[in-house]
């Protein structure tokens, strides 16, 4: 059971960072995953007073505050229009509306969870994250880092997303996914982000791909096979490694089909 | 630590522990419709509105509700009774334990979605678990309730 001794509504990101450098202190995202943890927290650091909630649309893209809820992302029309609905598709299966009103995008990403739809999505969208005090880095680099004292403050998604599709598979509705894929085709580069393997999402890319290639069944087979071969799959009570590998290839092919049809 | 909050329109100021969930605080104020169910943020039993948005009170620290307006089923009695009649007519409940959270979310959905389709209803309410009924009665009741003013 979660125990919290003290609570601090941070007045500045610097204050939050200084507090977060102590090991027993923790940043609060939505608090949902943290609630299931069994370690005592000395000071829970709340970022909700720092103006990090909300999505700002600029000419180049979207600036998403770390305290933005998953539901705000899911229902953002501009973000969904630019990503062919991939954002909504990735998030709408996560438990329920009330859950997604609580869970934050910052908390979902910072944990780099092996079951995460959110990390899989943003990796596929080639997003950038702003860490304090590190600065802005590609999410692919962030995904490979170990969690440290830095604080995730913003996520940046560019508008020129090309064509994107997201699909996941679950044993039962609202459960964690057993496989998740975000595939994008942008300026001739095809990228597949694969999550819930169950390990943090990783991406595979192929350059010089034209839309005509997506018409060829053998190309789809080959891309899905090569993408799945580029990552490791594991087993747990939801699915075996072999099954995940198989389902991931199917999901990638279906995403490619959606991109081809342009219906997502 | 000091908490200032409105519950169903009534203002409170109290000293609370840093780790106290909103659910516990609300029950300490007599809001017994707010129930602890799964403890894993999955069942929706503890649903309340925070500034009109449905949230899981088991997963929100009471201190996070500072200066916010909380609504529980106790604050929505006329609406709850109206929807409850549709539930009863459709035989949509059995033990009734999930009803408060379910009703809170149906009323939130009614405010948020315009004329939702069946798929949209199911998706919106996916975070409310019922282990008695199989949901068919629930769905009939929700459809009838949302369509009550159409004729």
From TrEMBL, chain A:
Cell cycle listed as a keyword: no
GO MF annotations, alphabetized: FAD binding; oxidoreductase activity
Protein name according to UniProt: FAD binding domain-containing protein
InterPro entries: CO_DH_flav_C_dom_sf, Diverse_Substr_Oxidored, FAD-bd_PCMH, FAD-bd_PCMH-like_sf, FAD-bd_PCMH_sub2, Mopterin_DH_FAD-bd
Cited PROSITE patterns: FAD_PCMH
Domain FAD-binding PCMH-type as annotated: residue spans: 1-162
Record's keyword terms, sorted: Flavoprotein, Oxidoreductase
Lineage, top ranks: Bacteria, Bacillati, Bacillota, Clostridia, Eubacteriales
The keyword Lipid biosynthesis is assigned to this record: no
Pfam families: FAD_binding_5 (PF00941)
UniProt xrefs under Gene3D superfamilies: 3.30.465.10, CO dehydrogenase flavoprotein, C-terminal domain (3.30.390.50)
UniProtKB/TrEMBL annotation, chain B:
Leader sequence residues: none
Residue ranges that the Swiss-Prot or TrEMBL entry lists as coiled coil: none
Keyword Transcription (UniProt): no
Keywords: 2Fe-2S, Iron, Iron-sulfur, Metal-binding
Limits of the 2Fe-2S ferredoxin-type domain: 1-76
GO molecular function: 2 iron, 2 sulfur cluster binding; metal ion binding; oxidoreductase activity
Cytoplasm is among the record's keywords: no
PANTHER family linked to this entry: OXIDOREDUCTASE WITH IRON-SULFUR SUBUNIT, XANTHINE DEHYDROGENASE IRON-SULFUR-BINDING SUBUNIT XDHC-RELATED
The protein, known as: 2Fe-2S iron-sulfur cluster binding domain-containing protein
């Amino acid at each position: 059971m979660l125990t919290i001794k003290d609570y601090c509504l941070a007045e500045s990101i610097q204050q939050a960072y200084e507090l977060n450098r102590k090991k027993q202190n923790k940043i609060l995202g939505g608090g949902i995953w943290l609630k299931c943890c069994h370690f005592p927290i000395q000071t829970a650091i709340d970022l909700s007073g720092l103006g990090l909630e909300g999505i700002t649309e600029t000419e180049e893209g979207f600036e998403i505050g770390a305290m933005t809820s998953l539901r705000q992302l899911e229902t953002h029309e501009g973000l969904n229009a630019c990503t062919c609905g991939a954002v909504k598709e990735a998030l709408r299966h996560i438990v329920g509306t009330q859950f997604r009103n609580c869970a934050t995008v910052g908390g979902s990403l910072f944990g780099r969870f092996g079951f995460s739809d959110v990390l899989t999505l943003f990796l596929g969208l080639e997003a950038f994250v702003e860490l304090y005090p590190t600065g802005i880095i590609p999410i692919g680099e962030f995904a490979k880092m170990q969690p440290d004292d830095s604080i995730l403050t913003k996520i940046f998604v560019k508008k020129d997303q090309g064509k994107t599709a997201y699909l996941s598979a679950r044993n039962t509705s609202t459960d964690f996914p057993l496989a998740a894929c975000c595939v994008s085709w942008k300026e001739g580069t095809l990228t597949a982000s694969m999550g819930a393997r169950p390990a943090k999402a990783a991406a595979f890319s192929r350059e010089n791909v034209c839309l005509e290639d997506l018409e060829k069944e053998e190309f789809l087979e080959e891309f899905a096979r090569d993408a799945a071969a580029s990552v490791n799959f594991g087993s747990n009570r939801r699915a075996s490694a072999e099954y995940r590998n198989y389902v991931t290839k199917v999901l990638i092919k279906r995403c490619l089909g959606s991109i081809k049809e342009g219906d997502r | 630590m000091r908490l200032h909050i409105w519950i169903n329109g009534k203002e409170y100021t109290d000293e609370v522990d840093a780790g106290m969930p909103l659910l516990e605080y609300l029950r300490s104020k007599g809001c017994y419709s707010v129930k602890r169910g799964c403890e894993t943020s999955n069942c929706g039993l503890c649903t309340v509105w925070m500034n009109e948005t449905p949230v899981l009170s088991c997963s929100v620290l009471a201190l996070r509700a500072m200066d916010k307006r909380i609504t529980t089923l106790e604050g929505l009695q006329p609406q709850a009774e109206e929807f409850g009649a549709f539930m009863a007519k459709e035989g949509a409940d059995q033990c009734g334990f999930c009803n408060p959270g379910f009703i809170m979310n149906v009323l939130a959905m009614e405010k948020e979605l315009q004329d939702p389709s069946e798929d949209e209803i199911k998706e919106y309410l996916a975070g409310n678990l019922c282990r008695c009924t199989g949901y068919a009665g629930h769905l009939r009741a929700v459809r009838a309730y949302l369509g009550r003013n159409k004729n």
